Structures
1.
Amino acid sequence: MTTGVSFRGINDTGPRHEKFTYWDSLFDVGLRGEMGEFGDYFKTWNWELGFRYSRNEGQDLAVGEASQPGLREALLDTDPATAFDPFLNFNAHNTKAARQRVYITLHNSGEYELPIGYATVNGDLFNLPAGPVSFAIGGEYDAPRWTRDRDTLNTTFQSIGSADGGSARVNRDVWSIYQEVRVPFTSPTWNLPGFYSFEVDFAEREEWYSQNTSAVLPSGAFPFQPAAHSQYNMQKPKVSVRWQPLDPKYIGALTLRGSYTEAFHAPALPEISPASTQDFFGAFDQFTGQTYMFEVRVIGNPNLQPEVAYEWSYGAVYSPKWIKGLTLSADWWHIDMRSIASLLGVAFIRDNDIPGLVFRGPPRVINGRLVPGLINLVIDPNENLTGAIFEGLDYEAIYILDSSIFGHGDFGRLTATLNGTWLSRAELQILPDTKRFGIAGEVIPPGFTLTGSLPWSRANFSLFYDGPADTWLQGLDVGAIVHYTGQYEDDNQTLTTNFSSVGFTKPQTPRSGPLPWRARKVREWITLDLIASYTFNLPPPAPAQVPGFAKDGGKNVNMKDGKQKNVIPVSTAEYNPCGWRTWLNNTTISLGMQNVFDEDPPFVAGSGENGYDESLATIKGRFWYVQLKKRF
């Protein structure tokens, strides 16, 4: 039964709050060595073994939440000492006994642990006229384990004001091998006209996955979910080419490069757990013509498959001969993603009234016509969507001005860098029977797990000064960084939709909805960061002479008869002296400030929660920091 009465227990408990506690541990161990002792053929071979274990434990105490069964019993209680009265005036509060029955502290905890072991070998196989054919081969074992233990009231969906959901346990075992071969067909030591240097890299990686999810108890519309097991493997290649057509002495260093890669990404462990998480969503229902609240269950999928991607890129790096210190680069890239693991989204499920995911009440007769029932529940599952395509241009310009080139001494070095990305195309296809539509230059609403918002242009410009070598300014590094995010479209698909009638905007034409005058752009955002650091590089102290030993290293000792005798030194070890110079040497002090002018992020109407784009911006504002680092 819904009464339509709202109640706030501020005078009873105060504001709700949560207490988080985390325990982190990390262990690393490794060995590396060379294989030259096995013969001259292995003199370039190296090996490495390593093991890492990391663990994160967390506890969340949600204070001041309400218990459904406790509230129900207290409302039905007839004893004034223990009954709960929701109709007290603003300044009154319930008895302690009543409050203890209704208001509780929920205990939620979770753990994530990841042991990783790996082994690699690399070296040269044999020599070609242009140089050695190099290789690398390795193997790795990962075993992530994720656990989430919710409070009993949460797992039975009987709390009020807290996100209910099931407990979950998921583990995964991953075995992988990878190999890479670099073949130099030509090089500066052996080349042909037009092929000053030409080399190709061939690489491949294969992984085998075995994963398990725990059983989930029934709750509401959800039946019992048994424990599940799934397996799959992936084998993906990569080929890259690096080509210098001309000797740098003619026009400077020009390098052409390109690559083709097939990649994959396994779903995160929470994404494959069938344990659901409860939420509530308020929206306009085009099938009933009403706006109301309904329950949403976000749920994982044990049968979720890895995302796969096909990527290619080509570009050039050029350092002109006539402008010393300048380097220019540009790369055009294309990414074709398929089987994207993502939530379908409540709005998409609701608007398409997908059977099995939308549960409605019984149909009703209103004004003589049959109207569908109100939505009681929407299930938002993780699914493998059809795919997405991204294309764009990465560019960079670096200029290093060394003051010594002017012939008047060394006064330090200036380094200016400009790098950025221009997004040419981004298109998304949800299901095989739906159209692909563009999402480039648009706000991506929160909750969409594929990507954040996609402005057409983003860039950074930095200018740094490094002190001259062999002076006390050698360790000085001072610089400024300007961050630029260009304009992009707001969530116009939602803004131009008319929710009071059946008038929705098409995804591929978000500005042409029933209310096109509400479409808007998110303005550009420019921020400035400053940083200054100094590293102490003190010269080593002059070695002190040991009494009784000569200046030639202590090999000759003056005897009583005036003759010298050659003896073995007492010690050839060199010890670092103690004192303030030792502690100060190799110490770096940094002082920085982010967002110097305290620029607020631009307003985004499509972000109803906070009014700004959380995927690109932050409301942290001006922030300064100090860092002290010591290298031993």
2.
Amino acid sequence: MKNNLHVFLGATVADAAARPLHWVYNQKKLLTYIKGKKDFTFLKKNKSPFYTIKTGKVSGYNEVGQVMFKTLVEGHENIEERFKKNITKNFGPGSMYWKNLNLRAKYRKVKDWRGIIKGPWIHQNIIEAVKNIKARKKLTGGTKVNESDGYCAALPYFLYGYNFNSIKKIISAVTVSKISLKYALAKFHLIDLALKGAKDPISEFVKKFKKNSYFKNVVEEIKKVKRLKSKPHPIVVKKLGMACSYPGTFNSSIHSIINSTNYRGAVLRTIKAGGCNCSRVNFIGAYFAALKGIDSIPKSWIKKTDSAKKILKQK
């Protein structure tokens, strides 16, 4: 596919595959949902305790990438400005995302309102970005959380060949957290190494950046994860981070990657560990698609992913 969009397809399909089990933090409960199933992707019945959307649709993480993809397909002038307009249109007032945000506020007083939300779930970074864009702030990215929205937003942009400095601007449109920026850039370097033919991009990254002060923490975290390689993935994820935040979401992703030989196995391993699987598979799916090519993505999974058709049209 042109512009390496098979990598974005890899992220999109993985997100849709994991989505019905998004944010299931009780690993024992999760095992009852997938009992007896060899393939527990695209579950027909939603099991996310927070929100429910139709199987085949993507989470809010991948959705912000879809918004960037749409912006790029429309043209390459004033990308940042148009991307921000499309964010407010897709996630802001008048959208289902915003309507459900207001419902969350209404149900906050109820002891356990989880599962009441029918439809998509808006993330903290996107809530802040929408408000900041509407207030015409120069820096529009969210500050309150260190999560993957910036990486997800910039993935299609990166694949169209834009340089690392301009990628920072796109990430910052959604999050200005220094931690989010650093780990997003680390992910892009890893995907870049995979696309350029590195057999082991993770080891290459460590070698390339071992004396780099900016990525010092990232390199140390990767080394720590490598030492835990032989431990069972669900146990390691519980230790490193099941939630959406960096560095946990990055470290848990690395553990899945180094224990998997292919796209399918890595996605299934990640889903089985529970928690914020969607934030992790958006990176893992992209990584394996970059490393092994479009044919590594199961065709039956592609067919089940609603957003896949638009990406495949860009051949």
